[in-house]
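Lecture 7 notes: from sequence to structure.
We start with the chain below.
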Amino acid sequence: MFKLLLAASAALLISFHSLSGLSSAYRLDHSDPSADQPSIMPITEGDAYRSSHHAFAAPTILLDVGHGGIDGGTSEADVLEKDINLEISQKLYLLLRSKGYAVIINRLGDYALSDENRWLNSRSRHVRDLAQRKSLSEEVSTDIVVSIHANWSSRSATHGPIVLHQREGRSYLLAQSIQDAMNRLCGTHREVVWGKPFYMLNYVKQPAVIVETGFLSNAADRARINNPAEQKRIAQSIADGIIYYLSVV
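Predicted structure tokens for the same chain:
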């Protein structure tokens, strides 16, 4: 399995060189289900890369790709959140790698991470999925966690990217840096939001944020985040926010 993931990661790198409301993220109010000790292999390659922004080994960034497989996330007009999350995350992964950062991505295809969780005794696929995501941040030396999602609202006029943060200073600064970059891209003036009910932000120990790239329920946002060229611009703005944060914190 690990060799297949490495091969998929290598294929992403090759393809890169050939290129010229808050309802969608994971909520869970139960106690932490990942108290057991899992064994998980990261999707990464070789030693940590070095960046011109850092005197020592570059920080490791974990990209959490929202939903997948049987869990499509939110949807609108036959556009599935899980697909948008994967496409933007893949582009973000390649952009950060091209800048010399060590990056781990937890999903490279359309599958549910709950299927990888064979260590947690729970009948809930949702609980196993969340626990699997959180445990990866503990199994590898991760400095920040960035979870990619798309949003949905009952009000079709609601639009724009929103970045959610932990109740922690570094998470807030990371969220603010990404939010500023995405506001510049989209011409919005959104503020960051404390993601109080979200599992990833409650139980991941490292500075973590959830990036809602836009609202599938809004026609303009949906067109943007479903467009490959715009997805690359979105990924670039998220990368800019991450790199700025890492260069000053």
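Points to note: Residues 105 and 141 are 13 Å apart (CA to CA). The radius of gyration is 17 Å.
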